[in-house]
Amino acid sequence: LLAPTEMSSPSLKTGAYILIGVGALTMLMGFLGCLGAVNEIRCLLGLYFTCLMVILVTQVAAGLVIYFQKETLKEELSRIVGSLIKNYDPSNDDEKNLQDAWDYVQTQIACCGWTGAKDWENNEILINKSMTVYPCSCSNNSKDFDVDSHFCDLDVPVNGTATSADWPVHEQGCMDGVEKWLKDNLGVILGVCTGVAVIELLGMILSISLCKNIHSEDYTKVPKS
């Protein structure tokens, strides 16, 4: 069975920690912003501005890392998915969520394996069954989507043995499928990212304006000698 440590990598762990940190910072930022605006507290508005700036810088840095380290990330994903496919076992409850997620990816993207269906020839269960079964989530036949089993039987086994070429599955690998999906939806992704960045910039501008207004009001309230 696949040990949990085999499914992890420094890059993915770092990414997960960054996402958790950004999520916590966003919640704190929203609370501070509301509190500072309602009670007109300059220091909280300043902290709100700082949090927004940190989040914006983090997003830009993450985008640059993904762009310049995309080959390294692709190699990491290839290793992780390869281990998942090789040790894929429906009876392993410890990895059930991860395996279900991979089945979902293969079904939604209409792909099979990372580079192709041949990746599944390394799976220990399929090897023991002489490749006469195949992953249902790879199937290009809609009737296989409704079965409860993770593996489907070949209708006509070839001399009791088979290869991935005999399976009724998608020819496209998930790596190519994901890249194609990203290219097809690049405009939407860039639009969402740009929209989020604009909202953050507007929040920063608004917090500065409120701070200036509060400062002006405090100055006018000071009694002149």
Automatic annotation (TrEMBL):
Membrane topology (UniProt): Multi-pass membrane protein
Intracellular or extracellular location(s):
Membrane
Main location group: membrane
Sorted alphabetically, which SUPFAM superfamilies does this protein's record hold?
Tetraspanin
- What is this protein identified as? Tetraspanin
Matching entries from InterPro entries are given as: Tetraspanin/Peripherin, Tetraspanin_animals, Tetraspanin_CS, Tetraspanin_EC2_sf
Q: Which UniProt keywords apply?
A: Membrane, Transmembrane, Transmembrane helix
Record field: transmembrane:
16-38, 45-68, 188-211
Task: Tell me the superkingdom of the source.
Answer: Eukaryota
Q: One Pfam match, by short name?
A: Tetraspanin
> Which terms in the GO cellular component ontology are assigned?
plasma membrane
User: Keyword Amino-acid biosynthesis: yes or no?
Assistant: no
User: By its UniProt entry, which CDD domains does this protein fall under?
Assistant: CD37_CD82_like_LEL
Into which family does the record put it? Belongs to the tetraspanin (TM4SF) family.
